[in-house]
Task: structure prediction
Amino acid sequence: MKSRELDAPSRAADRAAGPQNQGAAFVRQCLALTEMEMRKLRHDPTELVTRALQPMLWLAVFGEVFSRVRAIPTGGSLRYLDFLAPGVLAQSVLFIGIFYGIAVIWERDLGIVHKLLASPAPRVSLVLGKALSGGVRGLTQGFAVYLLAWILGVGIKWGPGDLAGVALAILLGAAAFSTLSLIIACIVRTRERFMGIGQLLTMPLFFASNAIYPISIMPGWLRVLARLNPLTYEVDAMRALMVRGGSTIFGMGFDFAMLLVSSVVLAAIASRLYPNLAR
Amino acid sequence: MNILETHALTRRYGDLTAVDGVDLSVSQGEIFGLLGPNGAGKTTVIKMLTTLLPPSGGRAVVAGFDIQRQPSRVRQSIGYVPQLVSVDGTLTGYENLLIFAKLYGVPRSERQARISSSLEFVGLQDAANRMVRGYSGGMMRRLEIALAMLHLPKVLFLDEPTVGLDPLARQLVWQHINSLAGEFRMTVFLTTHFMEEADHLCDRVAIMNLGRVAALGQPDELRASMAKPEATLDEVFAHFTGHQLDNGGDFREISRARRAIARRG
Result:
């Protein structure tokens, strides 16, 4: 590794100039950030356990009680607990995603964001890497909620296609909400302000969706909000894919298209704003 | 041959001109220091040169690439160690290097060899598999240098490389910076407000004051120009700027610097 090797990066840059190589580099850079997140989780998995507590309360307490009340129409023969399980899974993915910005502000305060932004990785690949990292954390919630729902007797669909569909919905939902969180972090820049806005957003997003009750019983104004909320489409797709007897209201293709569009639009905005964190 | 050039480089924040028409040129293999108190504009210059901050005026070329028209080529050619802690404490030293090797596009076939030689260069082979949060401040800084040299950059930017380090750790970091320039012919562009650091490390220094370059040259040349060869760099600074070097900075800068120091133990 003597002085002559200093030419190596520019030669590597020239080799990487082709579109195929650029595409491969883009994917590698996204996956590098995701790998970073997975390695962190492997070193300290306590977060996974503590995060599983909230969905446990929703399913085991709220779900069990409201199953007995039978006050909420589930649109068919679906038990309320079965109706609720996909909503609780989507909610826990929402919570993970929406508070992801805190970690980004922490990285900025340390200087890690500066280091990432001074690397040759395109801003979009950094944002998508972060979004995918949020998805990986969301998938771990998927395992916890599936296990709990199964213990509580929810009629789970175990088909590989159904499981893959739920995983895709989790990844897209987490991508949408973690990039939304990244946008908020880029705007507010401090942990204190972020916590306030995060708290302010999560409950309206949760209640203005079909996670714990169907859209059909909502007042007109709330229905409009629910139709604009990506969480609604995530829950709608999951309800058909996760539980036996579940069905979609909007159609599977439309649900995934809305999730994809939300993720792409939010990622595009986040990519524009992300460099501001280092200024 | 100049590997870095700036022409009338300027950055404004509203009414405040943080960097005001800076002209610099740095040769390949040189250790160049930007010297000045907090708030002089040193970090703003480095942020513009590393493409983190767009200039309000002027231009700069780093490793042959224009910072505004070819930012990704610039980033491919540089290494950057920010003032704050930029390694992840929740990963091991090896994992930090592995992730950045992938981000910098170090080919798979060369990755392990580069990581090993970088760790060896900074003397962290034995600590490679320990969590970084257990490292001392000096070890963290050395790991950051290993990270920045992993892809063999042509220009290495170091923002206040020894802030928060004890004298022993500072000496060790200086040794590594000297080796990068001597052994690898890497150009090092650093900022500091420690006069001793500039005197010990830098081939040439630019003294910055209120966003402008007040003096530029080899430390000995600057001393000679004030007809006092035994003068300290503090005296040189006072001579060219008209005031003593103090540690200024606003609330945000100071609290961030103190957090960095606290993190480094």
